[in-house]
Automatic annotation (TrEMBL):
Protein's UniProt keywords contain Disulfide bond: no
Annotated signal sequence range: 1-40
Organism of this sequence: Acidovorax cavernicola
UniProt xrefs under Pfam families: Lipase_GDSL_2
SUPFAM superfamilies named in the record: SGNH hydrolase
Record protein name field: SGNH/GDSL hydrolase family protein
GO molecular function, one term: hydrolase activity, acting on ester bonds
Record-annotated SGNH hydrolase-type esterase domain positions: 232-428
Keyword set, alphabetical order: Hydrolase, Signal
InterPro entries, per database record: GDSL_Rv0518-like, SGNH_hydro, SGNH_hydro_sf
Amino acid sequence: MNFEFTDMKRLTESLPGTRAAALLALALMTGALPAAPALAADASPTPAWVATWQASPQPVWGADFLFSAHVPSELRDQTVRQVARVSLGGQRLRIVLSNAYGKQPLTVAKTTVARPRQGSGDGALADDSLRAVTFGGQEAATILPGASLVSDPVALPVAALSQVAVSLYLAHATPIDTFHWDGRQTGWLVSGDQTRAATLRLTDRARQSTTARPLLTGIQVETAQAARAVAVIGDSITDGATASLDQDRRWPDFLAARLAPHGVAVVNAGISGARLLSDGMGVNALARLERDVLAQPGVRSVIVLLGINDISWPGTAFAQHAEPPTLASLTAGYRQLIAQAHSRGIRVVGATLTPFEGALPGTPLADYYQPGKNALRRQVNDWIRHSGAFDAVIDFDAALRDPAHPARIAARFDSGDHLHPGDEGNRAMADAVALDALLPGLGAH
C-alpha cells in the first residue's frame, strides 16, 4: 500500500463507516500513513489568566438604610478613579466591570489603567504607566442589566502585591445600582473626562472622595503558566471593616503576602453584612457563590467565614422581627455550599466564627451580642471543627479569643468594637492559616 494521506482520506470518505475505520487502522499499522507527531516533552508552559483582586458586587440601598451608601445615585460627565492592590502580578491584565443589580444598560465612555504614583495618596499616576482599556476593541463599552464585562488584555506589567489605578469616564447620566460598599480604599469622583490625567484636577464642581467601589469588581492577570487562586467568602471581618484605610491590612491581604511567593493569588469575596442563609447588605452566600467564587479564573480553594450575622442580626435594628436560625439550618447551608464547590473540583476550608461578646457598644446594634447567640456560635464552631464536612478547618476562634475570657476577642487583636479585629488581629488570622490546608503541597510556611 503506497497511498498518500489525501488518497486514503478520499477513499475512506467513499466507504461505509465501519469499513472506512478498518481501512484507516490497517493503513496505520502497515505504515501507509504516518503516526501523529508526538508532543515535545519540553513544550513551553501555556500562559493563563487568574483572578488577582476582587470587590464583590452588592445592590445599592436607599437613603433610609442604617448606613450611608457613600455614592451618589447617579453619575454624569464624571470620572471615577479607584486604586486596588493585586495579589499576584503578570505581564498583562484585564478588568471586570459589573452591572449586576442595574435595571438598564450602562455605558462607560472611556477607561484607563495605570500604576499609582508611589506615596501620592491622591490618585496621581506614575509616569509612563497610563494605558487605554478597550472592550472588544472598542473604547466605549455597554454593560447590560445583570451582566458583567471583561476588558481586552492590557499590556501593563504589574508586580505581585502592587497597586493598579482604574479610571472610568461616565459621559451620560448613569444610575449607580451596583457597587461594593466598604472598599477600605479612597477613590475619587471628579468632573469631566480625567481618565488620562496624571493628577486629578479640581473644577467648579468640587472633587469628591469615596471608600465605596462603583462598577469595578475584578482584576485578572496573565501568568506565564496556569496559576492557582484562593477565594475567601465572608462578611465584614473578611471585607476588612476596621482595617486601616488605604493600608491593605485586611486579613486576606496578609494572607496574600504569604501566598504570593508560592505563585498563589487571593481574591476577597467578603461583603460587610453578608450572611450564609439570608440577603442583607448583599445577597445570601449561595446566591453569589457562582459569581464570586466558582466562576473566578484559577480558583482551586475557598475559605468560608460566614454565619455570625445569621446568628446575630435577628432582634437588632437590621432584622428586628426575624427568627434566629437553628444549628440545623446553618449546617444545611454549609453543606450545600460545600457540595456546590466540590462539584467544580474546588477545595472547601471552613473557618470558625470569632468571639464577639460586648460587640458594637454605643451603636444602634448594641444588642448584636446576646448569651443565647454566643451559645449558638459555639455549637456552630463545634460542628465546623468536628463534623468532617469541610476539607480542612482554620480555627480563627482559637486564634483571636482572650484565654481568660474566651467569649471576647483578646485586647491586642480587638479593633475596639469587640466584633472586628484590628490590623494586628487581621495579621493573627492570616498567620493562623496553614498553607497546606488551602492547597496540599504548599507546606506550612
